[in-house]
């Protein structure tokens, strides 16, 4: 599919340039995307999207210094993958609960010691418990701000408050969470 897109480039110099990028960086681009989305099919699609973006801006890409080109290409893939991940995260359910599959996803580290995994697992369990004890509005505010990484404008629309008040409400919700953690002797 990517080769068909590259073949459609009319300018020989641009086509050769993009073909060279494909030959040199495709495996690294796919690995970069896979590390974010954890799916071969999605990673392939994201690399495809990255090539479309690079082709759209081929004049700019051709003017990038050769020593900076790999970073530019990888940043393009990373940004596309992160945006896709964020969009998927927003589209998913807005509630926060940690079951064993969620915990295993977040603590996945092939080099971690069992003790480290246990500590991470316990930390996530404790934080999940603290969030569950918060009033629903506070919990949803913290999830929107820190898990979904929504901007204040988005949060203000969702909760029907002014954008200026979002920080105040989030700060209050955070304080309530800290208070819960302090009562449990976890946060000092």
Classify the beta-strand content into a percent band: under 5%
**Overall mean pLDDT:** 81
| Biggest sheet architecture | none
What is the H/E string? Answer: HHHHHHHHHH
Please tally the β strands and state the result. 0
**C-alpha end-to-end distance:** 55 Å
Helix content: over 70%
Uncertain regions spanning at least 5 consecutive residues: none
Radius of gyration: 22 Å
Tell me, what's the shape? elongated
Total helical segments: 10
Would you tell me the structural class of the helices and strands? mainly alpha
Task: Explain what this protein looks like in three dimensions.
This protein has 10 helices and no strands. The longest helix has 26 residues, at 12-37. The protein is mainly alpha-helical and 188 residues long.
Key words describing this protein structure:
single chain, 188 residues, mainly alpha
In short:
The chain has 188 residues and is an all-alpha fold.
Topology of helices and strands:
Layout: H1 2-7, H2 12-37, H3 40-56, H4 58-62, H5 69-91, H6 100-106, H7 114-133, H8 136-147, H9 152-159, H10 163-183
